[in-house]
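ok trying this again, last paste got cut off
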Amino acid sequence: MTHRPVQPAADDGRDDPLPLPLALHRELRRALRSIRYGAIELVIHDGRVVQLEWREKVRLEQEVTREHR
């Protein structure tokens, strides 16, 4: 069996608008505005976005140490 690599679709330079439900659009914008470090994940079921999750990382400038007893 011969496998050919999948070629990405040609980019003609135009933005192809992706219609999003208003609630998803609102939540995605909120997540993107609030997150500084982390990940945003969309969960898809039957071709529809059913869940949006985001995890934010907290970066500490100084090393965290235990208090001396």
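PB: full thing came through this time. The beta strands are 38-45, 48-56.
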